[in-house]
Amino acid sequence: MSTWIRNAWIDPVKLKRLSDIRRKELRQAAFAVLEREGIAGATLEKVAAQAGASKGIVLHYFRNKQELFEHAMREANAVLCQAVIARLRRARTPMERMDAVIEGNFEEHLFQPPLCHAWLSLCAEVPRDEKMARIQRVIHARMRSNLLSGLRGLASPGEADDIALGVTALIDGLWLRLGLQPGSVSREQAVRQVKNYVAGRLALRELATAGA
Amino acid sequence: MSTWIRNAWIDPVKLKRLSDIRRKELRQAAFAVLEREGIAGATLEKVAAQAGASKGIVLHYFRNKQELFEHAMREANAVLCQAVIARLRRARTPMERMDAVIEGNFEEHLFQPPLCHAWLSLCAEVPRDEKMARIQRVIHARMRSNLLSGLRGLASPGEADDIALGVTALIDGLWLRLGLQPGSVSREQAVRQVKNYVAGRLALRELATAGA
DNA sequence: CTTTTTATTGTCCCATGGGTCAATTCTTGA
DNA sequence: TCAAGAATTGACCCATGGGACAATAAAAAG
């Protein structure tokens, strides 16, 4: 009974059970290795070394390699997501919400090549890992919903949908560029790029209604 | 002397030397394996099997695994590129050139999840493979130049640059979406999306000059 | 203080994969 | 027809990696 209380995932603030700490350390280590080595070069041994532990411990906390990297993906996404919702909380108008999502996705200390490299490696495994695919769908759904919370006030439902797709694609594409050619796109450039996209699409809409 | 003539890469039509055929077969096989297995699961044995040959032959034609996949990347890019330049030849106006690039990048039989999966896996290795990085830079440079050949007639140099970056990022992002969630974006949607982006950016420009 | 979980390590196993090599078959040109 | 070179194979080597496990250390519970 007492163990049940300790095991409960109810208290999100102080989940300081040792096993939780280790698991977090390990999935962060996994991510760090991914940044350096890519999915093809990521091994349990390297993850263990990165975490300053033995390989055995990794498999003690994660059933297998796959599960470990699935959790690494969750971790990375959580960080990204946190940046967005923090800004989203402070946003009042629809346009501010859009900007919150956009700027949150390019936060200075996150919009960096290594993070992108790791993320790319994870994405590359999505097609062969149903769990990762599911995580990916969740991520995209939340992104979409965040964007629509702003776009609903700015465009018709159908168009909002379309613009949301465009914004997500553009954001992903800019991340990819950063990953493929570090330094080829700055945080400011990226933000401006997406904002211009939104402004352009909305301008198009105004022109159409004005012309009609 | 005669061998030199035969070895020359001058004649692009009839490079039917046996070794050229094998090399092409093998890098195509490598790409096919990449589609199925991803970079982490791609092995020389599987590539050999895919090509209906032995592992030895793969290493006979390519120094090592790395080189093989570098060539696979070249191959894949060549196909994509070909689609674009074919359309580009028929384009007369700047706008037609833009559409040529856009539509070429989403050609029906190319804009497919498997191709994207393989492409993703290759991109994920770019940060750790200087040769691939170089190929990547070349690809991007050509893409940019193709776009600018149209954009120069539509916007100021500075803005053309910026729009070109946006278009490439958007295209990449839409490919990524297709790869992560097959079926989530159709060819027509993708084309429309990018065209709208361009139209929007240009509209923005007109509004600015009209307002001033 | 003892018993029972839990954490952690190091060792072992075995399959796989990259790469080498010698041996063999096939081409081709003289 | 025959010799030289290219194509192709299969066997072999060795390092590595994922995973199982037993043994030990550390905590927690009673």
Question: What's the SSE blueprint?
Answer:
The structure is a homodimer of 212-residue chains.
Chain A: H1 2-7, H2 18-41, H3 44-51, H4 55-61, H5 65-90, H6 94-104, H7 113-125, H8 130-151, H9 157-180, H10 187-211
Helix pairs in contact in A: 2-3, 2-5, 2-7, 3-4, 5-6, 5-8, 6-8, 7-9, 8-9, 9-10
Chain A binds a DNA duplex (30 and 30 nucleotides) through helix 2 and helix 4.
Short description:
Chain A is built from ten helices and no strands.
Question: Can you put this structure into words, describing what you see?
Answer:
The structure is a homodimer of 212-residue chains. In chain A, helix 2 packs across helix 5 (65-90) and helix 3 (44-51) packs across helix 4. Chain A has 10 helices and no strands. In chain A, 78% of the residues lie in helices and 0% in strands. Chain A has helices spanning 2-7, 18-41, 44-51, 55-61, 65-90, 94-104, 113-125, 130-151, 157-180, 187-211. Chain A has a single domain (15-211), classed as Tetracycline Repressor, domain 2, CATH 1.10.357. Chain A is mainly alpha-helical and 212 residues long. The structure holds a DNA duplex (30 and 30 nucleotides).
